[in-house]
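If your schedule permits, I should be very grateful for your opinion on a structural question. The matter concerns a single protein, recorded as an amino acid sequence and a row of backbone structure tokens. Could you please explain, in whatever detail you think fit, how the structure tokens follow from the sequence? I set the record out below, with my sincere thanks for your time.

——
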Amino acid sequence: MSESLSLKKWWWENAAELIKSPHNVFIDHINWIKQAIVVSAIRSSDFNTTDKLIEIWELVRKRASFWETKIKLMEIRNFHFSIIDEKLSWDTSGLKDYINNVFQELLYTIFYWYQNQDKLTPTKENDYSISTEKWLVSIVWFWEELSAYVHEQIITLNWITAKFVDLKWVIPENSDELKEWELFDVLSSEIALRVDVILKDNKIPVIPGYIPGFANGIENAIWRGYSDATAAMTSVWLSRLSYDVTLEIQKSVLGMLSSDPRVVKWKKRKLIEQIDYLTAKEITGIRWAQAKLLHNQVLRKELQEAWIKVRLFDPFSNSRGTLISKLKNPDSSWVEFIWGRSWITFFSISSWKMAWEGILSQVFSIVKDYASVDIISTSETELSFTIDGWLSQKKLDEMTSKIRKSLEIEEDWYENFVKYEKNKALVFCVWQNLYHSKWTLWKASSALSKWWINIEMVSQWIMERSIVFWINSNELNLAINLLHNELI
């Protein structure tokens, strides 16, 4: 029989908030549920430790003065001191000594680099590592490991034994030769084995969210937002070690909401209590929607194949948050989520040549040099698509001219044309059981038409989980609220 395991991914000041939380370690401990914890660098709402560390790396890269770099590093050390003084009520001299040692070690490494002017060799642009003739140092990892140590000490002082997981050299030397899924497999298995040793010793593993390693230098295998991904990787292989894993992504949010709280008022928004993997990926994949709720590596296929339940919630509220699993919510038969994106440019192309083989490829090979294509709709003789991001008038005209030339359209008229409209918007409606929903388009168009909002185009995606409406940008917020009232 599988043993239950709660793998918790904590959010920023949880080193301090842990003591107050009724939903974290202590409750699961007295219920004999095994636990493991993944942590990020300690931060606050107005002090982002990782951003500060990246600033330090940039100073080193630009060969700024050593004194300027030292001041930045002292800011981080002093911030950790202030958090400990403010939040913890016992003798913290040991913790401060440990933090100071980390500070001195990193400072010495940077000083050594300045003195010897060794080569700076990050293998990826966001790796933030320093290479000297003697060693390789990941600036970000230093404080991730420190965060894990601080959490270990706080949990242990609450009469529960914890142990931070050492991830040094967890990445194999041939990692640059591995495919992405192979690297995921190797990393997840190695991390899980290290965690399993601590679990079998009846201790709570505390895992730094950042993974250090090497591959012709230093390689950051996960990139920014890595701690969610580290938690997902660990949960996959722990499930293969016969643990029944629930991955708890704990953040200062109630869970997935039915729309943006800045657009739809609080009393009208709803919490999505249960959702399946694919619908959750659809929602978090919509640009600038709820993407920050989950790193894009969390709901990957390995996690889905392992049937790992993911719960997204705020541990300091009474809400159970959003449960993401392989099962759709059987009680859901209507829209779950509505979101919009404004200032979109909408292209329309009409030509009898559109049916020719290779024409679409020819058109998009022109577009890719200027912009990123988002939504596409086609017919035998017409093509419509949207592009994200701002493009100057000159660039838009230049791209339009090249498309006209490739289709041999010398002058726009009613049958053959290439034109664009700026200041358009997209409205996304996402739900789990679109296939079984009736009259959706009629209800949506009816709600919008009452306020004279014109739907210029509709795109229903093949996965049957979302419908996209194209409207004018200045009507976006009103449209979201109208559709939310009608469909949710």
Summary: The chain has two domains: 3-250, 337-487.
